[in-house]
Amino acid sequence: MRPPATDRADTTAPGYPALPLSATPAQRLDKEEALFRLLEGHWRYLRNETVVTPVEASDRNAHAQGQYPFAAILGCADSRVSPELIFDQRQGDLFVVRVAGNIVGDGELASIEYAVEHLGVRLVVVLGHEQCGAVKAATENADLEGPIGYLVRQIAPAVERARSLPGVLLDNAVDENIRRSVHRLTEGSRSIAHRVDCGDVRILGARYALQSGDAEILLTLG
Ligand SMILES: [Zn+2]
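Above: inputs. Below: predicted complex with zinc ion.
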């Protein structure tokens, strides 16, 4: 991901003053502003120019008054793919749902719907990554039992699609799994689908590269 070349509002310019933690919903970022702010942070991360500092007492005082995240991230639980670090954002900026394989089950779907409907989030990112262990398990062990078997079954349809594609199975399965999760958000939630259709909300699917640190956008809805 690279930030757009065009300048936008002061709150999203390089070195921008961070949106106050006390920002009210009326001050919330729309989907374009949210994307720009996320990309700016990611660009800082890639250049080793991160600016986010540890949470201070004043921040915690603001947090106690409410939460106003500007984007929601549905990411893998992998320890190497931490959204706040990858996008250089503060505690309170991102509504993060993490689960192995960035799957969309009922809990993940409800969480993202809550962020959109009740927290006013206008940008959702499904963040998968290279060499995902959960996806790898789904390519190798389709008949596992128990909770991990559940996880593998959620990823299996993406793996099946990937088997028909040229190239490396795991790489293709990671991408297909990201695409599947993006579409499951709109297929499973009428309210999310409505907000995407009417242009209020954007959903991105992105793949994080472990070595380069880059998060490449694979698809966009809305
Ligand atoms: Zn993973």
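Helices lie at 31-46, 57-63, 83-86, 106-118, 133-140, 146-163, 169-188, 190-197.
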